[in-house]
Design brief:
Layout: H1 12-24, H2 28-54, H3 58-69, E1 75-77, E2 108-110, E3 123-127, H4 128-135, H5 139-146, E4 149-156, E5 159-162, E6 165-167, H6 175-180, E7 183-189
Parallel strand pairs: 1-2, 1-3
Antiparallel strand pairs: 3-7, 4-7, 5-6
Amino acid sequence: RELFIRYLLPILPVLAVLAALGVRRVPGKWRWAVIVILLAGPALRSRAYVSLMSGEDPRDVAARWCFEHLPAGDSVGELGYTWFDSVPLRVNNSGHPRGDRLDESRFKLRDDWHAWADDPPQWLVINDTHRLAEFADQPAKWGELTAGYRLVRTFEAHATILPGWTETGRGSRQHDWLYLFPVIEVWQKQE
């Protein structure tokens, strides 16, 4: 089951009015303290997310690493055709093949994991969002697919709320957050 936080946005004005009504009942000398306490958490999180989103995306860092370290012509397994939340190993990230040069990559991209058993790719470049979508209910199958591979690199984002308090996408079932906190893994086939 996936949770979409964005669906709560329509009720935020109602919650803001209710909070204001509640704050009005607080005695005058405590009112500002209550307001600061209520706004501190959202303000700190907003600052952390702006910082996170203005930095370099782990998908781009992973793509650059792949272009620098993976030999051209090697086969690379992806879970599904390149989509906007995938590591950009080809120009076209629309989720649909176009049949033109935008679909080209310096790697032999293999997006059908069902075919990996017969002809395993030399590398796997996996966005954890896709892995969760495909294998959340069958972790043993993911274990079978990665048997014979070793994890080479992991790229992920962290939002630092306060020193010692960070948030990541690991383990999150809040689907919207998986876009902000991608976890990218690069696996290499063992000979």
